[in-house]
Amino acid sequence: MTCLEPNADCDDMLKIVVMNDLHLVSPGSPSPNMDTTERFDLALQHAVQRHSDADLCVFAGDIADKGDAGAYAVFDRLRCQYEVPQCVTLGNHDDRTVYTSAATNFEMDPNGYIQCRRDIKGHCILVLDSSEPGRARGGFSKQKRDWIHAQLSDAKDLDLPVIVILHHNPSALQMPVDAYRLDEPDVLKAALLESGANIMQIVSGHCHISSAGSWSGIPCATIAGNHHSVEPFLRRRTGQQECYASSAEYGVVVSNGADCAVHFETYIGAQQAMDHALFPKKKDQTFEPMI
Q1: What is the pLDDT of residue 6?
Q2: How many domains does the chain have?
Q3: Cβ–Cβ under 8 Å, residues 113 and 152
Q4: Domain that holds residue 154
Q5: Is the model's pTM score more than 0.85?
Q6: Does any domain span residue 20?
Q7: Span of 236-240, 275-279, 285-289 with lowest mean pLDDT
């Protein structure tokens, strides 16, 4: 049984749930190889059970599979069950014009992009809109970069570590998916590094695989998300890359300001638990004290 118990030691710990690549469709429309609406509902139920104490839930793009109004209505209806603060950004399958006409409770920057900043528990969380109409690889226009620069300058002045969340993965995974990762990633890299701000973590979706690594020294993680996932298909391999509908996950970012971790919560296709009696020391384990 999972339960959330009061713990004063957790009060200063930041927790962000990240859900991505929902690929929702309008009611009655063919779903892309699986029932993505049911899968999203299961993700939310799982998060309610395990992470109702989250400080923020970020929906990191590809909300809709075809950018249609009906899918965004489904999204708004279902996400209401997860009663934590939320923010949204878009991906290459989304349509910004349709989204802003059909959806509710979203945030825009002054130029109309679906991106926002939240300062929570001594952190600056930047949720960036990497989507661009007609460009599967997305990108960052000068208007977007100017907004990012202003937020990072302020975060630096306030001495806030920064967590960046966006749809397109900027770092190379050494897989064929790199052919459609974020377009001109060095543009974003320059905006982040030249700011002098403490970029603690980047989290993205888009590539449908769980990964962790770094990008010019910046820690990066990708989350497989709600739709299909893919196997690691690295250089020198040939043949067909396997895709799987048997599992789905969201991410949980936790930080105490000095240490940041990204966890992957599998809500479909979870592994079979072993007998608890085999691991008696794991009963009611203690946590390392927060710094």
Answers
A1: 54
A2: 1
A3: no
A4: 14-230+244-268
A5: yes
A6: yes
A7: 285-289
